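ok so I'm stuck.
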Amino acid sequence: MAQFPPKKPRVPIDGVLLLDKGAGASSNDVLIKAKRLLNAQKAGHTGTLDPFATGLLPLCFGEATKFSQDLLEADKTYETVVHLGVTTNTGDTEGEVMQRLEVNVTRAQIDAAVAKFRGEILQVPPMYSALKRDGKPLYEYARAGVVLEREARRVVIHALDVLDYEAPLLRLRVTCSKGTYIRVLGEDIGTALGCGAHLQALRRTQVGTLTLDNAVTLETLAETPETERTRMLAPVDALLSTFPPVRLPELLAKRFLHGQRIALGKEGLPYPQYQGRTRVYAGENGRLLGTAQLMEYGILAPERLIADRAAA
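replied:
not stuck anymore, here's the structure
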């Protein structure tokens, strides 16, 4: 009987991989590959990108997975190419062509149409989406030829800029709230112009404060020597950069990690004139302890805590 070498045991790895996802792969596929390349015990992503889309996909490992929800809630920025005059059943290049119309619009008409979609808008989620109805994702109904009523949702388009227009291709940059479908935005702009549209390309360039500046591709990760791959990870607190920091001495840090509330003023510590979420560090080495709610009178209430691997 053939003998196979034993699988390497997974190891605890904490951090964030800023992945520049290529086209054609699902977010879950690239997560599985990255987890295998890093030999990590625990991993998760921070919101999916459609297979045809490219760009920033932050992947969380170990303790960073505790804070992935914060990126799900964050604003996002995309660059997209909208193909005017052609509609598809999915709203992107992966679908079947449904209609072809002549494109005869001016830049002034485009600017006027685009202006209607800035700010708070109502958007009907597409049938080809992972939203669930009676336990089934909508795309399963769509593939079976079933179209269900969907309630319009309020989303916010913080910025919407025309980068270029050379008929029939319209290039846009969009900064939007969570839950925004760029495919639907492209289709709605096409409808407003009277010629229909679908997305030819979509690239995510920013999630919250994270950008593509230090992102790496899956190919680069695979080509890097195994012993050096973890150096590509950003620290866990890269997910928390918008929260003000609070620093505790070691004695108070231990109490904090046991879930105790800390009255900063009574302990003789300064505290920010701020109420809300904060990131908490300990001691001279400044290791991250987790997040907390900074409440009235400087009360620090533990929220999500980082496991102390050294003590484990």
